[in-house]
Design a protein that fits this description.
Layout (H helix, E strand, L loop, with lengths): L13 E5 L8 H15 L3 E6 L15 E3 L4 H15 L3 E4 L5 H7 L6 E5 L10 H9 L2 E4 L2 H9 L7 E3 L19 E6 L9 H11 L6 E6 L5 H10 L6 E5 L3 H10 L2 E3 L9 H8 L4 E4 L4 H4 L6 E4 L4 H12 L2 H18 L2 H15 L1
Parallel strand pairs: 1-2, 1-4, 2-3, 4-5, 5-6, 6-7, 8-9, 8-11, 9-10, 11-12, 12-13
Length: 361
């Protein structure tokens, strides 16, 4: 197996196409951002064309190879077409199934292209072009076994499906004892997606506050549905227990992680769940769904609890067990941190992805 930083066998052999990667924040964008960084560091990245990104949002160390078109579809198509005919790569990497048909056209007649698959997009009704591109791709990079299962349900040949779990990179610091006596439950995610379980957390906290007057729920993340959850907190009588700060800076987010006692995102249809890995890196026990990829990250009974989506009773019980047992929270947090170090670091993600691309190229 080659070392992580070793150049691959076909230098400058991969070009990428996509939409939002650097001009928008989210798990999908972060996953592809890292893939482009890995390809460039290994000498594999030829160039990349991002239809929706602004050029000024692309990091300076990548700006010579990556072109943002700020929504100018005509210019995007002209540039990718020229790249194909003048100096075609050995492989096209698509950041989403939406660009699969274009990659198929660009790589004709050999059809050498890879699509990154997440999860949610495969629960929607795909067009005939999208399905054709998915089923004829050289490979699908599935960010979880759950994603792979969804692709199989769409009729994709299993031989084309390759699971590549993601990883995160940040300065991990030792867990510092809390000064405050509050019991803090943390949720991190976009607040314009209703499937992530924010409403269920508010309902659970409404039941917990009588037993744990010091409990606090922090719903961190930007989005247009913030007023909806503020209204829900008022409806359930927990405005004093529920904090909804909206989007916060990276520094502020790290403080939320540092002060939390439990991380909870009982969502539905998570393709992976970067935030669970971040929480484990901060020694936090996690509560997640057992119906999506979160259960591939969170070990039930070891690093936290996984439960059915929408089961507020199970959510209440899991939170109750953790809130009343500090030793259990600590032991699960320690095991979660160990699991992060074993499987979900930046270096582990880099090695998995580059070895996968190497095998395809």
């Amino acid at each position: 197996m080659p070392s992580v930083d070793a150049p691959l066998k076909a230098p400058r052999s991969v070009s990428a196409i996509g939409g939002h990667v650097f001009s928008k924040t989210g798990g999908m964008q972060l996953a592809v951002r890292r893939m482009l960084e890995f390809l460039e560091a290994s000498g594999q990245l030829k160039e990349a064309f991002l239809r929706l990104d602004k050029q000024e949002d692309i990091p300076s160390n990548l700006s010579e190879k990556i072109r943002g078109f700020d929504g100018d579809t005509h210019a995007f198509l002209v540039k990718t077409g020229k790249a194909c005919f003048l100096n075609a790569p050995k492989l096209w990497l698509c950041d989403h199934v939406n660009y699969g048909a274009l990659a198929a056209c660009l790589s004709m007649p050999r059809f050498r292209y890879v699509i990154v698959g997440y999860a949610y997009e495969f629960t929607l009704e795909l067009s005939a072009f999208q399905l054709w591109a998915l089923r004829h791709a050289t490979a699908i990079v599935c960010i979880s076994e759950y994603t792979k299962k969804l692709c199989l349900n769409l009729g994709v040949d299993e031989k084309r499906l390759h699971v590549c779990h993601l990883g995160v990179d940040f300065d991990v610091r030792p867990k510092v004892p809390k000064v405050s006596k509050s019991l803090d439950i943390l949720f991190v995610g976009r607040m314009d997606e209703s499937y992530k379980g924010q409403d269920h957390l508010v309902q659970a906290v409404a039941r917990l506050k009588e037993m744990f007057p010091q409990v606090r729920l922090h719903l961190v993340g930007g989005g247009k549905s913030i007023p909806k959850y503020e209204a829900l907190a008022r409806e359930w009588g927990v405005t004093d227990q529920v904090d909804i700060p909206g989007y916060v800076s990276d520094a502020a987010l790290q403080n939320y992680y540092a002060n939390a006692d439990i991380f909870a995102m009982p969502s539905q249809c998570e393709g992976f769940g970067f935030v669970f890995v971040e929480a484990m890196a901060h020694h936090l026990p996690c509560i997640a769904s057992n119906e999506d990829a979160a259960q591939e990250v969170v070990e039930h009974g070891k690093t936290g609890y996984t439960l059915p989506y929408g089961d507020v009773d199970a959510l209440f019980e899991s939170l109750k067990v953790l809130l009343e047992d500090a030793a259990l929270r600590k032991s699960m947090g320690v095991r979660g941190f160990e699991r992060y170090q074993e499987r979900f670091t930046y270096a582990a993600y880099k090695e998995r992805f580059l070895n996968l691309i190497d095998s395809i190229v």
